## 1
Amino acid sequence: MPHTPFIETQFPLALLSAESYKERKAGAGQTLTGLGKWWGRKPLILVRAVIVGLLMPASGDPAKDQEVFLRILTMDPEGLWKRKNKALGTKTIASLVSAKEAEGMLDYSGDKVSWISGVTKENREQLERLAFNRLSYDDKLNFCQRPEQIDGPGDESWKIINEHLRTSAGNLNELLNELSIKIYKHTARVGDVFCGGGSIPFEAARLGLEAYGSDLNPVAALLTWAAINLIGGGPEVQKQVKAAQKAAWEAADKQIAEWGIEHDGRGFRADAYLYCVEAKSPATGLWVPLAPSWIISEKYRVVAVLHRNDDKGNYDIEIVTGASKDQMVKAKMGTVQSSSLVCPETGNIYSMASIRGDRQTAEGGTVYGLRLWENQDIVPRPEDTLQERLYCVRWVSEEGEREYRSVCQEDLEREEKVLALLRERFTDWQNWGYIPSKIIEPGYNTSQPIRERGWTHWHHLFHPRQLLMHGLYMKSVTSFKNIEEKIGSIISMSNAVDANSKLARWQSQLAKSGGIGVVTPSFANQALNPILNFPVIPSILMQDRYIRLPSIADQITFHERNTILAVDATQVVVPSDLWITDPPYADAVNYHELADYFLSWYEKHLPKIFSNWNRDGKSALAVKGSGEDFKRSMVDIYANLTRNMPDNGFQVVMFTHQNAGVWADLGMILWAAGLKVTAAWTIGTETSSGLKKGNYVQGTVLLVLRKRLEQNSVFLDELYPMVDDEVKRQLDQMHRVDEGFMPQFGDTDYQLGAYAAALRVLTSYADIEGQDIRHELFRSRKKGEKSPFELIIDRAVSIAAGYLIPRGLSRHVWANLNSYERLYLRGLELERHGELRNGAYMELARGFGVSEYKFLLGNSAANEARFKTPAEFKKNQLGDGLWGDSLLRHLLFSIHLATIHQDVREGFNYLKSARRDYWSRREDILALLAFLLEGRAYQHLEHWKMELEYTELLQGRITNDFAAGNTDP
């Protein structure tokens, strides 16, 4: 029989969303994150679930299938108990069990609940387990390790797993090997041609399968190689690598100590250097130190105070510890506001663009005014518009005592020594690859440091102190002969240069620093933002950055057969049974630009280690985020993957986007590549909003694909009803998840589900009314013109919009509302769930076919979007058109009248006079009022508070309006 995988029939969306969320929230505690910076790694639990879901066969018993699947992933009750690594505590236990159940074990007397003396360990565990099992799944995870942090299911689970699947495995590796041999007659190979940070190949190898990973960008390939061979290399390899990292750091630190460039000669060593950019004020001609805030440490009330110095033509900077309240307030203002210089003398504000000398051309372009730095520039030239200045040093004594000091003459002499030492070595170090020599190629992200600072080479993003320190470390790394030691130390450089560059930020009040001041990494976001006041971390505090390698449970044996390459995805010739990819999106991170920041530090060393890898990011070949080139690249890539998989192989494409045009293009891309969608699941994977706060996580759609072997045809008019049915089926399935566990999806996630459902229908046909889909995909279209695929997907979104009814409203009431009323009510749901993105409201309006909706918005600011309250509407649009003459609009105005007059009769009387259909639609009115009143459960809807009070009064008045109703003619 053909293999029907579990993932084609069902997938535990809510549980996997919760597990993915937990993993994401671990931040730096995630297994691969500590290896090096990359953007958008998918959670390992999600990858594991996909692989198991593809290899585990579905039986005729769906309930048993799900039980076994959860046991394999240790997401069942037994597995969760095995993963539990934190005690519930007597207080929590007492809240979950009855006094009778705890009789003889818990003492409730006194202020605290405590164990009664003499209770055995077994009895304690039994009561704790009883309490643990009563927690929700989400709450259980607070006391548990992640599935990857234990060695898999327990003995009892293995008996059940093996009996159901007819296997004889004792661990995950054995199980996945047995399952793959049953399907493919060999151990399955899992491939990923957009391997990025390495989640997919890493998890495949950890599960005992053959792993293939490739990426056009060598930085991504290097991270993936290191994930499998260093993190997955076992304790001995990790010990060896850390020893090499330590040796390289110690050699650099020793040299720095010998030079005396971080010591004051009185027993103190520098703990942090703070620099700022200086620019001349057009008002006074004085050089003004630039910083948005001059607060250095909140805890110790350390501030920088500026004193005008006309003799030098600038400002002296005094560092004050124990600043007064007035000094703290003044320091908080800084000399930069909204990217503009604020003159300390006159208060005049000058944009940084004008300071730089940027100007507009007659043709509407921009000419940037800064001098472009040359390779040999490592500090600004005296004539440059922007200068850099050391303004504070934090020192620490051998006893650990910290001092924040103003800059003295000795500090400036040490700065000159640093510069001289670097200049002596600069040319040789660039030639040998100890420091970068790579040019910054202009691009979406990379043009920012060019235009804002004039920096043209990657080493310009680093201060001489940083270049000297990082260069000393790399000097030792290049002497290592062992490949693991060399790669492990090169990888640690990625962490070091992320932490220590002129893009890093000084934070004066982060909780984790205790308010003493701490540095946040260069890539706090997906950009290259030159900072006006930046820190430099001395060598002593860089130890944990240079010496870093995450580890995992040493019981796990990685499959030895894995291939990692830096190669164009269209050139891949290695066949895989399962291709799992997370492709670049139409608004993708510009990986090929940002990764050059890291690549510049080891570009000259990689070819000596991996001779068959690409030597650079190949920006010309990179899959760009939009346009015809993007689509052609994607078709070529997925057609190549389809050729390199067996007829019974599978692909899973992970995709997150809320634009119908992009989804239409994706559908045509997959169709043109010879693939068909067989299942689609939406999993919450992002942490932009938290489940615990009542908000919804953003979903990632998993598209499960097979080769399209059939040559069946369909007409467009036949497709529409099939898409309608499939969208409804998809949304019903998602609704069941929401209602059966906990809210997992927002409106945008349901739209993703609608997109995926439409693709499932579209891609199942080889021919759609004789149309040349490849031609439709690539041809240029006029503005506003839509492809046949996009029209069908628009239809799917429209079906979803009409089919999804806000909680609390009946289908009968919903059917009586027009498109504007539906849009408004669904918009209120968005706001209640914490969705404030403009794009979400725009997509919602498009789904209802409402082209002009902005008059409904009470706030249109970025990430603050919401619809108006009755008070904000006032009389606007009342009685005019579909919206103004609707029942809901009249109802909102009646609430407004009742509120401003503080008399419910005003609103009640207006509604009865304005609506001749008052009696026939009275039940609709009450249902709408009840829906509006549900807003009271959401504390962040404070702007509705007063009006909801009168909404409730109006509801009561209409509810009791029976007598008149019975006599009304």
## 2
Amino acid sequence: MKQLKKNILFFIMLVIYNTVLGQVNIKGVVNDTNGNALEGVNVVIKGTNFFDITDSQGVFEINDVVSGNYILSISHIGFKTSYKSIDVDKDNLSFLFVLEDDLLNLQTIVVTGTFEPRIQLESSTSVSSLELKVLRQVTPRGTADLLQNISGTFTDASAGEVFTKVYTRGISASAEDDFGWYYISLQEDGLPVSLVQHSYYSPDIFHRLDLSTKRVEAIRGGSASITALNAPGGIYNFISHDERSHFGGEIQLQSGLQGEGNPLYKVDAILGGPLGNNWFFNVGGHYRYDDGARNTDFVFSKGGQFKFNVLKKYSRGYLKFYGKILDDYTNRWTGVAATDWNDPKPAFDQDFNTTALMMPAFDVSIPDGRNLTQGATNSFNPSKGLYARDLAFGFDLLQDLGYNWSIRNNTKFSTKDAIWQTSISNAFVSLNDPTAYFISDTSGSTFPLGQVVFRNAISGLEIARLDNSGIFGGNPIEYIGNGTLPNDAIMGTSAWYKDNKANEWMNQLTLRKQWKNHDFNMGFSLGFSDTSLFTQGSFGYVTYEPNPKMLQVTLENPGEPIIYLSDENGVSNYGGLFYVNSQAQVSQVATFVNDRWKIADKFYLDLGLRLETIGHKGSKDRYAPIEEVGGVDGDVNTAFDNSLNVFTGEQDIFNFNYTYLSYSVGVNYKIEDEASLFARVSKGNKAPELNYYFNNFDNVPVNSKGEIQEINQLELGLKYNLKDFSFVSTAFWSQLKNISVSDFAFDENDSSIFYTPNQSNRSKTIGLEWESIYTPFQNMTFRFNGVVQNPKATSWTVYDAAGSVDISDDSIQDFSGNQLPFNPKLMFNLSTEYQKDQISAFFKWQFMGKREGNVANAFQLPAYSIFNLGTGYTFNKHLSVNLLITNLFNSEGLANFFGANSFGVSANGVTTDFIQANPDASFVVVPVLPRATVLKLNYVF
């Protein structure tokens, strides 16, 4: 026994001795083809946890490597991945690697839209990525503004950072202005920013772009059907910086002017490095102060965010903790008036580049109809716009289980608030229209005919006095005295207050098993959101002019008491236009399987299934106008608080589940090392969002569930990666079925706002996407991407309420076969970039083709072009400066169309017959944002 113990001890010592003797160091330098050192290159010994990241001199060092045969992987975004077989013996090894440019990142590993990391060239999906160079060529105008650089992606960022629209391949019908990401998953590090959407509550509210983003990956359709929660239209994943082997970071100072000289200031910073024992950290964020692209009397945006992650890497995987604190104020631009249906021009002295028809700043407390007996009020100040707060924390775990099994779990908790204090609608309301007076009190207790007085709400000075006694007899108003109102009108607008809250938890777990010819993944995704919504709308008396002013309005008939149609701030009809109070618990549970099967040496088959169940359980308050004589304050002479909508004590309950099966099958054939063909067929589904309940079933039982939309897609593509030229071209066919469409309408008889009954429709789009890059000279690069498509509303009807709640005069209009609105047949980006020594420059042309303004195809938004210019100078490896000019020639392109310039109408109300009957009528459009010039100063350390 003693001898056996001695032999075992001797054997252990021998193994340890030989292991120590067999440990060597691997050193090296990584350069680009111009001989410049590359920082941040990942050098990994495949199949082990040995790795390093090159420093600013391009140097890496991996220590204490045990003897054996290995493959060394050298990868960096923007460069082709290089592999080197190495034989580790007793001597230290030293290498020099030169990485070639990967012009379209086709040999870069992508993690979006797939269950396992995969080189883009070998993927059977249409994947695009934006690297740091492109991210730094944009001015701070929001998420959607950046994404228009991605091939085939339609974005409408005319409203600013929020209230944007993003979609692809004609999958757009339910992507409305107030929740324009309907089919898209906006993600940060692989998980959605937000689980739910409804009016004025989209994921862009909680997302800001800054230096903390390392790259963006995008999937258009295809595998999004099986890899994203309820988002078959695509995935846009913003990926944060990860480990840095050396302490360092960057500070960026931005200062600029927009529109007519409105200032913008922003500071960004990131910092990261090792903490020892394979721990790494990254922190970053920004703060900005922005007067806005158009003219208002308040700061348009201010605030920022802080993000962090802490990573532990170990022999069998990693554990990452991450989080975000967003605390931000911003707003969104509304439309402006135009005339001439064939060639739109600004109307009423407005300007497409500078006019913002928005209420000015003021403070008012409006009674809260939910808790009136407790004296509750809601503060309202339109200068605050949207206040967005997001506190998020999560962890991401990857564990190698041995025997080619691994598990990954990514989970995130968040609490969100989105409080809107802004104006909706800015329509022209003639003083000869009874709506201008009767909307002050929709209870019917006030009959505001006679002498109406308008005063400046700030100074109290009288602006105009008129007599409207003859308007019901067809006689125009008569001014009394010399004062008049601009354009003989007021603005039809609502003081729009929304309080949205959500507590969310989401999780994705993936179990992976690798065999010789199979890469099998299975798992489940979970998402739970406890959300609430309160919406209250009041009327605001505002002048209709380029710089609107609030109006105090009174009825002052001789010998009678003064009737106050508005309060001292100009707010009227307290809480009488809108009342929605709802809460909902949303559950999203999905299980999935996917197998990537290597059928032959260069041929892969990708098969995936996803079974998903969406649950909506909640309640919606019933409401009615206050019944007390004299309204909230009991004073019969204050008409502005007579119509407050209050909770009746009754609620309508909804509890519906939506279950569906989605699939996606793709193939990839590698023609040669630098080229591949791919094809994919997918069937996805889209369950209704909460808007279905919140916008419908007004004071009636929620007695039916919404329709599940079906998305069928086919795509066939070619990827080619040469030394100086790369391209990806994808032909696609997409079909969207069971589209539920409803518009809000205004009843002129009782001044109420309602939603029309849903219509179920269908659309189809066929097209070709492409992205390409060409480097004819060492210092010159050309980029060209875009889409040509034919979007059709194959079966489409619109409900016409004829301007009243009364259904006896309603009709259904059929527009089947028309062009799908807001989808251009052609859009592209063409740019050239120059880089030599310390000087860099770029020039970009963004073209947006003609789009139909509605499904009636009665009005077309003209094509437009935007040109962007940038130049930079690098003083040394630490300091650089860049000048960026967006919309260089101040294009007045029109991005959106809201319909005729009348309160409570929608774009679908404009038909060919309407235009023929109203050739000189004004209408509301939303122009693209004007020129912005930004100077960036970067310090890297």
## 3
Amino acid sequence: MLKILKPWRPARCLYQIIFQHSARWKNSSSKNTFLYPNNSQYIDELYHSWLKNPKSVVLSWDHYFQSMTADDHSAFGNVTSTSTKSFEDQSTYVNHQSSSCCVPDVDATIRAYQARGHLIANTDPLGIQNPESANLQGTSNLAPAVVVRDHLKGMTDADMDKEFPLGSLTVIGGEKKQLPLREIIMRLNNVYTGHIGLEYTYIPDLEVLDWLRNKFEIPGAWELSADHRKSIWMNLMKAVTFESYLAKKYGSEKRFGLEGCESFVPAIVQCFETSSELGVEAFVIGQAHRGRLNTLVNICAKPMYQLFVQFNPLSIEGFGSGDVKYHLGTHSETLLERTGKTIRVAMLGNPSHLEAVAPLVVGRVRAEQVAHGDSKGDKSMAVIVHGDAAYAGQGVCYETMHLTNLPDYTTGGVIHAVINNQIGFTTDPRYSRSSAHCTDVARVVNAPIFHVHADDPDLVAYCAKTAAEYRQKYKNDVILDIVGYRRNGHNEMDEPMLTQPLMYKRIKSHPNVLTIYSERLIKDGVIDEAFIKQETDKYLDHCDSEHKKAQSISVMQMKDWHDVPWTEFFANQSPKNKIPSTGIDKSLIDKICTAFSTKPEGIEPHGQVFRVLERRKKLMSQQQADWAMGEALAISSLLKEGHHVRLSGQDSERGTFSHRIHIIHDQNTDKTWKNMLNNIFPDQALYTVTNSPLSEYGVLGFELGYSAYDHNTLTIWEAQFGDFANNCQVVIDSFLCSGQSKWGRQVGLVLLLPHGMEGQGPEHSSARLERFLQLCDDDLTQIPCEGSSDNFDDIMTQQLFEINWIICNLTTPANIFHALRRQIIMPFRKPLVIMTPKSLLRHPMAQSNLSEFETGTTFQPIYQDPTTTPNTIKKVLFCSGKVYYDILEVRKERNLENDIAIVRIEQICPFPYHLIAKDFSRFSNVKVMWLQEEHKNQGAYHYVRDRLSMALCLPLEEITYGGRPVSAAPATGSKVINKEEKQEMIEMAMKID
């Protein structure tokens, strides 16, 4: 009698079998049937067709129906009888059978191991995690219920020796299509609960699933040759010996050593070896402090003596303050030993803010790929090294992961390596994350995750090799979680027993990985004691030689630590190099304006676009330009000159206030648009303008990394509102304003931060100008270049050369044009932060004559008051930004043009002392007021007050304040209060007596 041993399980068939073979089912009716798992009539017909002829259905259905039926002689044998019951009736019949009818559900058990085996894998060298899993390898003992659940309920000893078909969901049998249950469980234990925990079953691509299964399930897949294992030993020996050498020579110094996870070094070397064989030529590494020194020397091939110099109390040769040794970067070419390939390796400078460097790495790689036409990411690759606690705890990891598959941000996959020492500073993992693993964030991009035992270097190397192959084949992220421990405390001066006493008792008695691996290779006959001594002594001799060389060096060279190639552009910089005019030829102005005002062919724009284009044409006929035209003239002219321009932000294609409209979308056809600035000139450079994901921290980091690669590229990040910069303050503080000082990294990144008290509430008003000014490193003790030159252009050039970044609050389209072009035309690079206006983007007074863009014109740090009667002026208002237009109108209404002069300071930092002093010399016996729309404790007041005093040779008390009172919030949320505050500010400004 035919027995149906289990009810219909639609989830398994639909999602794991049917879709595997969906390509065979071409007609839509068949596909639609699959969407309805309760369509018992279809299943019944298919089943009866199979009963008559098993070959009438696809192989997966054949396997399934075999596993669902049995006769009296075989639990999973061929069906020899038929039944007149419908499939639905038979399922009902099953539900009434006694438990004695149950047999092991082998398919479900295999799937359980594949999906959940990682939860109990024996990946912890200390045996603290999942201690019971150590008893599973090499046995047929069943995994705990958290993995297998009830799938083998009712299993008997007799079942263990029965053979079961393996089906299409596993390849643990290799060539064998069925195995005894005992052997099945043993092989599953070895693959899924041993020294590796695999996470991949959530990946929707069946080809990827099959590929990964073949890499890990096929017997013998993990085996490495003797030469390969010897190479792994060599890299491991260098990693372990280097740490012990540092401990011996610099025992009282913080080193944030790699001890306990030294297998990381052969892992990354393996990634490089495999990737280089597959065509990768350049690698960019981002890493926090843990293991950084070891990585610099044994992976990046940093000359060891340069690192030892960092331990010596030496002065620095070059511009900047430098940084501690475990924050520094490098850039080098190195020859890989096994493949003989020469590769480029960069390690980005990174402060202790853990994962902050992650988006910079992918931005840096993306820039290199674009520059070399590497559209698929075949030649350049990012490697991001995480700490376990930081990977789970730092939000930028999530933001960076989400860039993986976005068209204008993807790098073709990132290899993420986790130095997992099972502790975060002093916090136990049980109290530092809610997820099962520190790597769970990677699931958002369906990245496979390999958790691997750090004391099993063979398996670590194999997983690294597979990770590199996967990245190159499928162009997606992949995670290598190397689970080890931290032999010392958070740093070498720390006492870990205070917080983790039991863990560190176990660590003290635990041999290091080199000892473990050496014994294993000796036992296997791969190496012997003589080889170990010879190679170790040779490496130690090299360490001694480099250490001796370091003692002869008296000055540390900053250029030795640059993380980008030190080109002639940077090497020959001097404050005496003049900044050329940023204006352009009138014919170019006309051509760009015409193109920017004309509807592209082959597209149907929104009606508002037509109105914008008409407005542009009208302005052009009047020889005027608005803000959008100023931007377009700057960008397009740079494109013509061969400079790649990239503009990114959450609303950058059209501009947050719809003033820009560089991308015109077709109103009738999806995914159809035109870039207004592309193809204006033949052979112009690439212009990328893209709406970014809703991420500031990650995206700004990406754009900063992008801008660091090529000094000839203009990279712009635009916040939707200025206060959005609050979310990426780590990048601003740790990398942007201080990058040159700490690491000698010059970048020309531009930040556009919409700013202005427009009555839109606290969080959409202020870009926190005061914060950026506080981070400026100009000296207030004396006027720069005083007495050294009478040429104001030379003085400003020297100020720009010496400052850490440039802060502007602009009011005219001409100045945004010149400011953007100056970023590229300057003979050096500085970040530029612009308080971008909002209402001025369309303000009828915020326009510039086209003559202000022509050859010979340049950026204006200040705009003088055009008064022709300076002797009648009783009060001089200094201001910056939108407030100028507010008071200009009122001054005119009250006929005070001959009484009050208004001077706009467009570039606040570096402060234009000499230009202000020269302009102020026109007036005599006047009152001086600094006017701002921001509150008194915010904005530029506290920065400019002392500088105005120095420039004007006036006591501080004579520099009065005009504006809103102090406030904790950047603006009011009440329109009534906003209007009252603005009126009070205007009255203060217009008051003469």
